[in-house]
């Protein structure tokens, strides 16, 4: 099926690819924000002061139920919390031993979801040790994991947001193996989303999206929305031949109503060097807790 590349060159607003959804559906969105770089850093499109209002318009239009972010610096995190507003809460951490610097984060709409548990761990042989590295990556790589309960349906599910290493193939392979093992040990539906720094035909994708533990939401979707382009476009025009580095993976049994890559352009500009990826999913019918309360 041919899905055209979307481009909003003449528009100064952001048109939602998905937008808000109603229960029992959940709107999942992942985006590598692109860390804030110095003003002199080329290209000019990389400058946060130019991208910040574009991202604000994108998030205002989309209003995802769950948003996974990667490559977020602390100041950007504060800006994004302001963009989303008080209806959203977040869990995140820096990747260093002191949990500072570049971050991964999960933001969630508190009108639909409540936080049950949090687990932050590192992609290494010592996952509980902050800042640990043992897989061959020069920089620490980590996972922000949360368990959420849907206040409308009662369903509890897990979300992981992650960024695999951009240089080490060995690190990506071992990280995928560790993620696979972790997901296998979890109860309930699970979503793993982020920037995997490798294409959808790669070994880590085959390891994770094996059809038993996880599946690729884009391949399961009843409807494809957005574009069939790659996700790492570096502010350039989207290309159908580009690599899809950013994925939303989900445990089998979910109804994936729609999914796609969103190469939105606002006045011809992109909010990040990566394109957002979206999925609309549901787990079963709307069934509130029996006593009308939210319990552990």
Task: Please characterize this protein's 3D structure.
With 296 residues, the protein is an alpha+beta fold. The protein contains five helices and 13 strands. The protein has helices at 48-62, 74-84, 169-184, 203-208, 217-220, and strands spanning 26-32, 66-72, 88-94, 103-109, 113-122, 142-150, 156-163, 190-195, 215-216, 223-224, 246-250, 255-261, 277-282. Strands 3-4-2-1-13-12-10 form a seven-stranded mixed beta sheet. Helix 1 runs parallel beside helix 2 (74-84). The chain is globular and about 45 Å long. The N and C termini lie far apart (44 Å). Mean pLDDT is 91; it is low at 1-10 and 286-296.
Describe how the helices and strands are arranged.
Elements: E1 26-32, H1 48-62, E2 66-72, H2 74-84, E3 88-94, E4 103-109, E5 113-122, E6 142-150, E7 156-163, H3 169-184, E8 190-195, H4 203-208, E9 215-216, H5 217-220, E10 223-224, E11 246-250, E12 255-261, E13 277-282
Parallel strand pairs: 1-2, 7-8, 10-12
Antiparallel strand pairs: 1-13, 2-4, 3-4, 5-6, 6-7, 8-11, 9-11, 12-13
Helix pairs in contact: 1-2
């Amino acid at each position: 099926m041919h899905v055209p590349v979307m481009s909003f060159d003449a528009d100064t607003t952001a048109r939602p690819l998905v937008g808000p959804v109603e229960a029992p559906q959940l709107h999942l969105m992942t985006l590598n924000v692109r860390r804030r770089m110095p003003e002199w850093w080329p290209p000019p499109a990389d400058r946060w002061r130019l991208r910040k209002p574009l991202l604000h318009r994108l998030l205002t239009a989309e209003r995802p139920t769950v948003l996974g972010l990667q490559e977020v610096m602390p100041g950007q995190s504060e800006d994004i919390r302001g963009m989303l507003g008080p209806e959203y809460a977040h869990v995140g951490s820096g990747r260093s031993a002191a949990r500072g610097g570049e971050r991964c984060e999960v933001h969630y709409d508190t009108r639909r979801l409540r936080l049950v548990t949090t687990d932050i761990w590192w992609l290494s042989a010592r996952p509980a040790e902050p800042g640990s590295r043992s897989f061959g990556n020069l920089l620490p790589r980590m996972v922000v994991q949360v368990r959420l309960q849907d206040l409308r349906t009662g369903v509890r599910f897990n979300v992981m947001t992650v960024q695999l290493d951009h240089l080490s193939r060995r690190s990506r392979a071992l990280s995928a193996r560790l993620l696979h093992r972790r997901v296998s040990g979890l109860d309930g539906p699970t979503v793993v989303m982020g920037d995997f720094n490798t294409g959808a035909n790669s070994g880590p994708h085959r390891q994770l999206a094996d059809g038993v533990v996880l599946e690729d939401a884009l391949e399961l979707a009843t409807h494809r929305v957005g574009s069939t382009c790659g996700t790492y476009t570096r502010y350039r025009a989207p290309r159908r031949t580009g690599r899809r580095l950013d994925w939303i993976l989900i445990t089998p049994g979910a109804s994936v109503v729609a999914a796609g890559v969103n190469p939105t352009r606002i006045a011809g500009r992109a909010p990040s060097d990566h394109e957002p990826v979206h999925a609309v999913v549901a787990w079963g019918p709307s069934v509130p807790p029996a006593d009308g309360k939210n319990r552990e």
